[in-house]
Specification:
- A 5-stranded antiparallel sheet has the order 1-2-9-7-4. Strands 6-5-3-8 form a 4-stranded antiparallel sheet, with no helix packed on it.
- With 97 residues, the protein is mainly beta.
- It contains 1 helix and 9 strands.
- It is globular, with a radius of gyration of 13 Å.
- Strand 5 and strand 6 form a beta hairpin.
- It has a single domain (2-95), classed as RNA polymerase II/Efflux pump adaptor protein, barrel-sandwich hybrid domain (OB fold (Dihydrolipoamide Acetyltransferase, E2P)), CATH 2.40.50.100.
């Protein structure tokens, strides 16, 4: 987690396959433009058929609450440990405070 090349980013804690939804036909956990707060699930990482929830973890320069700006990884895409998953921005930036 921390500041990435493209802005404020939450990164993968482990390598695996990233999923934005709990199952293929289900809606995504979050979408670009959604507000997130500490603990909200933003996706899953699968390693050897074991699925680990990825929760938004503010701190280390990440704001709480925040807004999802964009995803760097497509649903079902492979990720490496430390790879940026999602870019966020502080809600205060929107409110002008």
């Amino acid at each position: 987690m921390g500041t990435g090349v493209e802005g404020l980013c939450q990164c993968a804690a482990q390598a695996g396959r990233f999923y934005r939804r709990p199952e293929p036909q289900a809606p995504t956990y979050v979408q670009e433009g959604d507000e997130v707060q500490a603990g909200r699930t933003i996706g899953l990482i699968e390693v050897m058929k074991t699925f680990t929830p990825i929760r938004y973890e503010p701190g280390n320069h990440l704001p709480n609450p925040a807004r999802i700006v964009r995803f760097f990884v497509d649903d079902g895409g492979d990720v490496e440990e430390g790879q940026a998953l999602v870019e966020v921005q502080p809600l205060e930036a929107e409110r002008g405070t």
